[in-house]
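Our consortium's second objective concerns turning raw sequence data into structural hypotheses that experimental partners can test. To show how far this objective has progressed, the report includes one record in full. It was chosen at random from the queue rather than selected for favorable results. The single chain below, 188 residues long, was entered without modification.
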Amino acid sequence: MKFDRIDSPQELLKYMDMNIKYGFVGKNGRKYFNQFSEEWNDWYEQCIVQTGEEMLKSGIGTCWDQVELERLWFEKNNYEIKTIFIWFEVNYENNYPTHTFLLFKKNNKWYWFEHAFESYKGIHQFDNIQEAIDYVITKQLEYAVKNNIAKLEDKKLIVAYEYTKLEKPIGVDEYFKHVTSGINLKKE
């Protein structure tokens, strides 16, 4: 199946299953696939966050990159979408996980399109955007708690940002600046 012949979100998910691997492309040109390996420790210094077009060529990316590929397809097919970045917002070095995801609207419902977060891969329906965001935040917290990275009370630290398309490949620090300069969706 060719990317430009995909005609539904379900087909996009199948395409990604067959053609996209989890990992990252390094500034050194290497592809990193094993997040449990010693070489993955180079992530912060080496990772390049790719545009959707670059993801099509490399076939590898974290959720950050994969959302850009998803955005490419959904925008070309005229869907209303939101791209969301969530993280535990603290001002000290930490190992808290981050996540990005895409929501799309169809028939007055919102859908979470997920490929990278393996446990939740699929298309999940919600009545509204906030319900979807709250659900993903809960699943992110559960993942962090299960892996002894966070405690349940850390939920209050999680902030969601709606952010815009990447115009070029960027490093991790520049990526954080880009996504956190978007619309803060935290409920007060």
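The partners drew two points from this record. The mean pLDDT is 95. The longest strand covers residues 81-88. Both points have been shared with the crystallography group to help prioritize constructs.
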